[in-house]
Amino acid sequence: MKILDVGCGGGLLSEPGGSLFLTTINKTHLSYALGIIFAEQIAGIVPKGTHTWEKFVSPEELESLLESNGLLVQTITGMLYNPFSGYWRWTEHTSLNYAAHAIKSSAKVETEEHHTKSPGIDGQEASQK
After folding, report:
1. Among residues 22, 56, 59, 62, which one has the least CA distance to residue 36?
2. Could you tell me if residue 88 is inside a domain?
3. Is 86 helix (H, G, I), strand (E, B) or coil?
4. Domain, as residue range, for 90
5. How many domains in the chain?
6. Residues above pLDDT 90, as percent of the chain
7. Vertex 110, ends 109 and 111: CA angle to 5°?
8. Which of 113, 117, 114, 112 lies closest to 13 in space, CA to CA?
């Protein structure tokens, strides 16, 4: 799996203890039904084609990916969107959307020389193991 190189050299993620926060969609049948079928095709909450099923990722897969790149996952928490109120709320369920917080490990796992570069999003370089 490829990780987008977001150019963190000298930034918080290059320092031990630096934090990374991200949100994404879990890869479940429920998230497909609600995220693509309902949100895009039925309710029109987001434009058609916004989500790509192949890019959805499970919390376990994300945790493995982050840890293999020198980040220690601190927490994973579910998120739930209410289309009627327009608000998000935290939940213990990660079957749809979830947020993750990881910190840069103090142990040096890999150096930049050990990464190969391949085209990423919009032609930018992406690190690939």
Report:
1. 56
2. yes
3. coil
4. 10-104
5. 1
6. 54
7. 140
8. 112
Say whether pTM exceeds 0.85.
no
65/99 Cα distance (integer angstroms): 15
CB within 8 A of 94, min separation 6: which ones?
26, 59, 76, 77, 78
| Sheet with strand 97-104: strands edge to edge | 19-25, 97-104, 71-82, 87-91
| Alpha carbon distance 41, 67 (integer Å) | 35
Give the tens place of pLDDT for each residue, 38-90: 999 999 988 999 999 899 999 999 999 999 989 999 999 999 988 889 899 99
CATH number, domain at 46? 3.40.50.150
Token readout for 88 is: 């998000």
